[in-house]
Specification:
Helix content is 36%, strand content 26%. The chain has 6 helices and 8 strands, in the order βββαβααβαββαβα. An 8-stranded mixed sheet has the order 1-2-4-3-5-6-7-8, with helices on both faces. β5, α4 and β6 form a beta-alpha-beta unit. α3 crosses α4. The chain is globular.
Amino acid sequence: MTTMVTFSLGNAGQMKGALSEPPGSGKVGGLVVVHEWHGLNEVMRAHCQQFAQAGFLALAPDLYHGKLAENDEEAAKLIGAFDFQKAVGELGHAVGYLRSHPRCNGRVAVAGFCLGGALTLAAARHVRPALEAAVPFYGLPRIAPEEFAQVKTPICGHYAKVDDWANPSVAEAIQKAARSGGGAMDLYVYDAGHAFMRSTDSSRFEPKSAALAWQRTVEFLHTHIG
């Protein structure tokens, strides 16, 4: 079941998010699910439900604070006014909310798509205390790759061979830097295009790649957050 919840942003007020709980009553790993540039739409709510069915407590924060884009043109306008640094701070509060949730075992990861993939990597770099894991899907942050030499959070990255927005060569540079600093990053590049996980968009969805990326993600998350 997915419900809308409100959590604190400290002195910055409050934020809403979609929360999906797994079956049962036991403690499980927490997962912040970061939406694409269209906002917290039905696609992202569905991802939350899928993660919950896989055994995680999944929260998708509404980083657009109620706004939604119906198409790429509207999404581009929202991105033009988007404060990335503020959003990373908000993700930190979402992580804190999950860590203290009664269903959470205290271990929290972040996973995100497109814009959310970029923010996932930024969260791995900047959110403290450190995340237990990070899973970016075809997103790259506004951070120099060499900064990831300081990141010890395990990362599992999913990228597409044909992607003008999230070039896999940059992801490879991030992986090299993370490993040089003693971190761990698995990197997978699929025979697909950008947003290949978006099942509602037949022009982008690549089912074989999506299924494999999902399997790898669930296994990775169960390893690191339970």
